[in-house]
Design brief:
14 strands, Rossmann fold, ornithine cyclodeaminase, domain 1, alpha/beta, about 25% strand, 6-stranded mixed β-sheet, globular, 8-stranded parallel β-sheet, about 35% helix
Length: about 325
């Protein structure tokens, strides 16, 4: 007589972690060193991470990204996660975030789901944390003038994260919609600029976080020795920076991703000099007075380590 297969072991359902819990448990103090270590591991080949999958959605500029990664194990459970993130520029008119993200955290040994979390704030903060870590490695801690091109959630998270690593003596915000720039500037203690050029002139640090597909930052505006965090334009045919800007010293969060996915790099023919993980590890030292373009596409390993921090904090608080 054939015996029926044994019933699978009973396991707990994954934790459901909402936006409020993520905001409560994800701190910059813990996130910055975790991101730095993840970027070093990525450049050293200690991370398993394919290039992201991108699907175009109905609506101008609307995209779905699928981003899996397995972070390196440093004596604590390795982080295995997959994030789904939508970018829908039309959401701004609906009163919704232009980026909405959901993350699945898995047990790296068994593949058992541990948590499903709202990763919208996680994405906003870890993106800015990457820029903050790079700023700390590439520039001194003297007060800086900051220009932000863009007025959405990433503009706000960048102001928060950069202020944690360097004193900001002025923040200038530009957006194609003046009212949006004014609201953002009021939220972050800055001032709205009437145009992108006036925001960028004399800025020590420039952040581009727009939905632009054509350049909004011109190289001729940049102060010699400026540091540019080029965060937007995540598709091969999109750009935020012109050829003159991209002719400067270019650093990527991940070389292959930048050369495959970043229109700023592809369309300008720019050469990626190194990865930020190589700078953080001390393997590469950029010229001290160079104008630097840091092209960051947002790597899945950053999401994985950030999610692990949130999950560990929720468990420590008494979650399953």
């Amino acid at each position: 007589m054939t015996r029926p297969p044994a019933a699978p072991a009973v396991r707990d359902l994954p934790l459901l972690i909402d936006d409020a819990a993520v905001r409560r448990h994800l701190s910059l103090d813990a996130l910055l060193p975790a991101i730095e270590r993840a970027l070093i591991d990525l450049s050293a080949g200690r991370v398993l991470q394919p290039l992201r999958t991108v699907m175009e959605l109905p609506g101008p500029g609307s995209l779905l990204f699928v981003k899996p990664a397995l972070a390196a194990n440093h004596g604590s459970p390795a982080a295995l996660a997959t994030k789904l993130i939508t970018q829908v520029p039309g959401n701004a008119a609906r009163g919704l975030p232009t980026m909405i993200a959901t993350l699945l955290l898995l047990d790296a040994e068994t593949g058992v789901p541990l948590a499903v979390m709202d990763a919208t704030w996680l994405t906003e903060l870890r993106t800015a944390a990457v820029s903050a870590v790079a700023t700390r490695a590439l520039r001194d801690d003297r007060p800086k003038r900051l220009a932000i091109l863009g007025s959405g959630a990433l503009a706000r998270s960048h102001a928060l994260a950069l202020a944690a690593v360097v004193p900001l003596r002025a923040i200038h915000v530009w957006s194609p919609t003046r009212a949006n720039a004014e609201r953002c500037a009021a939220d972050i203690g800055g001032s709205a600029s009437p145009d992108a050029e006036s925001a960028v002139r004399d800025a020590d640090i420039v952040v581009t976080v727009t939905n632009a597909s054509a350049p909004v930052l011109m190289g001729r505006w940049l102060k010699p020795g400026a540091l540019v965090h080029a965060v937007g334009a995540p598709r091969p045919g999109w750009r935020e920076l012109d050829d003159e800007a991209m002719a400067n010293y270019v650093i990527a969060d991940h070389r292959r991703a930048a050369e495959t996915e970043a229109g700023d790099v592809i369309l300008s023919g720019a050469r990626v000099q190194c990865e930020i993980g190589e700078v953080l590890s001390g393997a590469v030292r950029p010229p001290p007075d160079a104008t630097v373009i840091f092209k960051a596409l947002g790597q899945a390993v950053e999401d994985a380590v950030a999610a692990q921090l949130v999950y560990a904090a929720v468990r420590a608080e008494g979650g399953r």
